[in-house]
Design a protein that fits this description.
Number of helices: 4
Structural class: mainly alpha
Number of strands: 2
Radius of gyration: 27 Å
Length: 101
């Protein structure tokens, strides 16, 4: 039968393990969480209105990022609204910019 080898931990290793055990778990506060994106016809319609108003007030072609900033909505919400407006034929894309049709 083979003998088991026993090893002694150094005091540094023991201290390190003790610190890990004692360290409290880090919790993230709710403020850093992203708000859930609600996808329904009403919400998407409102986002489409926000996108349309941003484009109408700028009177020039804007990128998705610029539209989101101007409309004060996220890029995901901007894309949802743009999809609605593309389907209705209200906006057109030229290279990487979007403008009213």
């Amino acid at each position: 039968m083979a003998e088991k080898k026993t090893t002694k931990k150094s005091t540094a290793e023991v201290a390190k393990c003790e610190e890990v055990k004692k360290a409290p778990a880090k919790r993230s506060c709710g403020a850093t969480k992203k708000a859930a994106l609600v996808v329904n016809a009403e919400n998407v319609g409102f986002k489409a209105g926000d996108v349309y108003q941003a484009l109408a007030s700028s009177e020039c072609a804007l990128s998705v990022k610029e539209i989101a900033k101007k409309a004060k909505i996220s890029e995901e919400e901007t894309l949802l609204g743009m999809g609605w407006l593309f389907k209705e034929g209200k906006i057109v894309a030229t290279e990487d910019k979007i403008t009213l049709a």
